[in-house]
Structure formats: C-alpha cells, structure tokens
Design goal:
Chains A, B: It is an enzyme of class 2 (transferase). Two copies of one chain form a homodimer. With 355 residues, chain A is α/β, with parallel strands linked by helices. Chain A has 13 helices and ten strands. The first copy, chain A, has a domain at 12-155 and 335-354: Nucleotidyltransferase, domain 5, CATH 3.30.420. Chain A is 45% helix and 17% strand. The radius of gyration of chain A is 22 Å and the shape is globular.
Chain lengths: 355, 355
C-alpha cells in the first residue's frame, strides 16, 4: 500500500487488494463515508483499522467508490434523497464484495442538514437497516469538507466557494457556526455566482453609461457567443441556473490578470466577502483563543479557491484573514469529501471506543 | 366638462357624455391609448379634438377604460400578447358604443418593445385590421409613462421604480436612451426588489456575525410571520417572484424612519443608483444642453417614488440629480400611462397633419 491516492482515486493495487481479500473479511470491518450534495452524492467504502492502532496512512485502502445524483432532501424530496443514499451504500458494498453485515460505521455528510430534526430524520431512515452495533453519524456536508482537510478531525473552519459560498466552523467541544451560504438573493457575493453576476452587471453598466468601460465586455460576450451587451439580458434570464452563471469566473479572473480594473475590483470584493464569512465564524466560536493569536486550520474547498496563477483568490483570502487572525493555517485537501466523511466515522468510533 | 380626472378615472359625467353622444359621432373621431405591461394592460378611448384647436383640457373626456392581463410578448408569447391587445381595443370601442371605423389613431406603448423589429412586429399584427388612414404608433411602455407626466410630449426623462427600475430618455429630435432595467441578477439595486433583497441580506449578515444588528430583523420577520432569521432562507427561495420580495419596501422605509442605520444606508444606496440611472441617460442624450444647466422634465413613476413621509426616496433622488443637473424639473403624473399613450397619439397626429 505505498501508492498515493489523490481525491479518492482507486489504484489497480487497491482493486486487487479488494478483490483478493474482501471474501475473507470478518463481519464489522468496513466503514462507509458519504458526501451527499445538491449536484451529486459519493459513497466510499474503507476497511476498518482498529482505532488504537490507527495512524492515518499516506495511502488510503479504498475498497470502492460510487457516485449518484442529488441527496439533498430540500431539493429532491425525502423519498428520492433516501433512495439515492440507500443505492450508493448498497452499490459500494456490492463493489467491495460485501453485504450490510460487514459495516462497522457510516458517516452521512449531507447537504441540507441544518437542524437536529434533519439529523434525526436521516438517522430514522437507516437505523433499522443495520444491526444496532453499527454506528450511524449524520452531519452537514461542510463537516466532510472540513474533515477532508483535517484527516477526520472535526475542528477548525472550512471555506467552500464554488457556485455558492459558505464558511463553517467546529470546535473541539462540539459547538458549530456558519456564515453566508444563503444563496444569491441573500447576498453570497463571494461565491462563483456572485463574482459572475457582478461581472455581468459591470458590462450592463458600461453599456448604458453608469460605469467605466471594461475588458469584461468583449471577453464575456465572446465566451457566450453574443454580439452586444443588450443580448446579455435575454441570455441571463433564459436560464437562471446558478451554476451556468458561476461558470464565467475564469473569464473574470483572466480579465483581472490582464490588468482590467473593474474585474480586479470584483475579485477584491469577493475576497473581502469570503474572508469576512470566515472571520465571523472564527470570532463567534473563539477558534483562535482569547488573544486572537491561536492557530486554527482553515480548509479551502471549491472551484473559486483552486489554483489561479496570476490572480490567486485563495491566497488573497488567507492574507486578508491573517490581518485579524495570524494563526490561520490554510489547508488544501488531498482527498475528496467522501473520504473526509469516512475519516469522521473512523474518529467518532475511536472516541466512542475510548470512552 | 369641468370635473377633474385623476389617473384615468371615469366620472358619471363622462359616462353620460359617452352614452349620449357616441351614436352620433362621425367616423374617425376617437383615439386609443394602450399601456401594455408585464402585469396588466390598460386601454383608454378618448374623443379626437382637431389638432389645430388642441389645448390640453384640464378634464380629459374619457369615453372608456378597459383592463386585461400581460401583453409583453417576451413574457406570454406573441399569440397571447396579440390577443390581449385585440381584446382591450375591441372592448374599449364597444364600451364607447363604437366600432373599429371610429378610430383615428392608436398608440400602443408596450413593455418588451426594445428594438425596431419589435415595433414592426406589433405594427404588422394590426395594420390590416384598420383602414389605411388610421395612424398606428408603437413605442416602449416607458414612452407612455413619460407622456403621462409631460401630457403627450415625447421629450425628457422618465424614472420608473417599482418592483424593477429603469430610466428612459427621449430627445426632441427622436433619439432615445435607457439605463438600468436589466433585472435583479444584472444589478437593478435601486428598485423595490433591490431595496428589499438588500434588507433581507442585512438580516442574514446580522444573524451570522458578518454585519451590524438592525431593526430590520424584527420588523421583517414579524411582517413575514417568521420566528428566526434562519427561516428567511426557506421563505426566500420558496417563491422567487420579484414582486413578492419588492413588497417589503415599506418595512425598510419604516425602519429607516425609526433611525435604523442599516435601513438608512440601503435607501441611500438605492437613491444613488436611481439618480445614476437618470444622469447616465441625461448625459448620453445631452438633455440639459452643452453647459449642463438646461432644464428638462423628469417624470417620476412607480411605488418606490410615491409619497413616503419621513424618508422621501423620490425627493432624495431629485436632490442627488440636482447636484449635477440643476435644471431637472420633477413631475409626478396626474394621469395614468394609458392616458399618456393616448396623448402621444394625439401629438404624433398633430405633428403629422402639420407637416
């Protein structure tokens, strides 16, 4: 097991390992980690190593990885969400050559879990499916994202900035807090959607005389195959999917890198918004100690925070947060959130067995 | 005919006038004015006074007024838009005890008419319905709104701020320009929707620690019957109709009047946005002469610009515009836009017959 796995990729080595050993496994020796999002749901199956001997390996011995559609009950309803979760778990076990009896613990980290009632509802769906010794944990999807950076420790802060944006923090003593994540109408201006919507607005303002000229006009009209700014209105309202609009972020970054001041200001505003959502969470939870100088991990997740070369949004966010909280330790996860969920289950189980 | 009519109301006097004289009218002696919006369509029928003897009367001799649904072809499609327009014209004539042969001119001032092709399409719908001597005029709905304040003169600027916002300007020599009016995704922050969305955002920011506390929280949660700011997210996305969100403007104004700084800042920003949309149009069209000091009418239309007592958004907008353009002459229309459309037809006809 010396090969490294990035983002849950399954190596040939592991396939062989899985095929060769699964038949002989004892009951109660795997863990399922589920990252349930609004776009897709991923389930991974990992062998359970005894908690006392647990040293997180460089290489995770992934037995199976399965993907399916949305499992956010707010988006698709309870029945569809439940069926999707059942399906990915069954497939992950089947691919591993196992059945339900092999499961030791499951962490379901699901988008749309915001209240204890959401948590309880999902627990109720699955409690009877598994023997009572199987541990079930239900968390928000932010928990898996954080754990993917902290290798299973539910402590610190995670900033997710893709189509939407949210900051989520957890303390060692079980408190949690979130900021932003309320969608575009409620002002998630740091998100990919927010950046792109402001770029489109800047084009309209340049066109009608309310704002300065900008390279965004040519760049985005060309990207969209439109011939004038007037046509942008029809394009925008023809399909208001947030992801479609958020997909324009690379064009905004390219214009900022080419020295366009309007694009640069939009990215600067986005940086301030993202940093503010993190500092609000850090402040409320006291994540950096009473003197504000304690260190805390900040896991960075999502397309907006991934490697831009010239204009590094993620690095600017870190610089901005550092001014208030010099102890911030940024982490770019090396594994995907579903692995984070499995590692959470692993750690919960360890804590549970140590008590 | 001494009674005054406000906003197109029909007095008993006029009903009698209509009933007593319509049967005896000569062919070619009425004008139809149509204000076609996204929410509703209004058609008024007025008697035609000979252009050379035209002095706009204090009292408009309204023969009929008819209302129907949407006639914006972008919203309901061409067939439905056309049928609605045919229906209101037929009903207005029928109520006046007349038929198509009585029509001298029609002005259709329709939302969604943005290009010469839109204009031509609507002309084509109706050209064959009427004898060739009947004059047909098609304009954007902003033209009727302007004319409702200038009593039929298509010259100056109109600012419309209701659910959405737009500034539209027309010059004596036939040029026109618009600013804003691109909807919420494209940043109409001065509109009723814009004001309310920013108020909702401010509540979320106060709740998650990103912004200062504000009276908006209690005021708006109470208005909506919600018990916590968390519930606002569900409320907002359950029904994203722009008008439903814009309906919160009175609560924002009340908080600003009660001294809330957050609400006050939102209204100040709205004022700047609305003023900027007007000054952009004035600048582009040169509406105030080469020295910037010439006078021009600014017709103020829509719920956001109607009488607030303590916090007068409309007056603040005028003050803001006056700094750049001291010649601005604000007008609050005394008649509705459909009457404005009829007056436009009247004036077009006068110009046409004088040539």
């Amino acid at each position: 097991m010396t090969k490294k796995h990035r983002n849950g990729e399954i190596s040939e080595f592991d396939r062989e390992l899985s095929a060769g050993t699964a038949g002989g496994r004892a009951v109660g020796d795997v863990i399922l980690g589920i990252d349930g999002g609004t776009t897709s749901t991923t389930c991974v199956c990992l062998p359970f190593l005894h908690p006392h001997s647990l040293h997180l390996p460089d290489s995770l011995p992934l037995l199976a990885r399965v993907e399916a559609g949305c499992s956010n009950h707010n988006s698709v309803g309870e029945t569809a969400a439940r069926e999707t979760l059942e399906q990915v778990m069954a497939e992950a076990l089947s691919k591993s050559g196992l059945d339900l009896s092999a499961v030791r613990a499951i962490c379901l980290s699901i988008s749309g879990v915001n209240h204890p009632t959401d948590q309880q509802r999902i627990l109720n769906w699955f409690r009877d499916k598994f023997p009572s010794h199987v541990k079930l944990y239900v968390r928000n999807d932010a928990a898996a994202a954080l754990a993917s950076g902290t290798m299973g420790k539910l402590s610190g802060c995670v900033l997710i900035a893709g189509t939407g944006s949210i900051a989520y923090g957890f303390t060692d003593d079980g408190r949690e807090a979130r900021a932003a994540g309320a969608g575009p109408i409620l002002g998630d201006w740091g998100s990919g959607y927010g950046i792109s919507a402001q770029a489109l607005t800047a084009i309209i303002r340049a066109h009608d005389g309310r704002g300065p000229q900008t390279k965004l006009t040519n760049s985005i009209l060309q990207t969209l195959g439109l011939s004038s700014a007037d046509e942008l209105i029809g394009w925008t309202y023809a399909d208001q999917s947030w992801a479609r609009i958020a997909a324009l972020v690379p064009a905004v970054v390219a214009c900022a890198e080419a020295g366009d001041e309007v694009a640069n200001n939009i990215l600067q505003d986005s940086v301030k918004e993202l940093a503010l959502s993190v500092t609000a969470v850090v402040q409320r939870l006291g994540l950096c100690g009473s003197d504000g100088k304690g260190s805390f991990p900040l896991v960075m997740v999502g397309g907006v925070l991934e490697g831009n070369k010239g204009w590094g949004i993620a690095q600017e966010v870190i610089n901005c947060i550092s001014k208030d909280y010099p102890g911030v330790v940024p982490i770019w996860p090396k594994v995907e959130p579903a692995i984070g969920a499995a590692l959470l289950a692993w750690n919960f189980l360890k804590d549970c067995e140590q008590e």
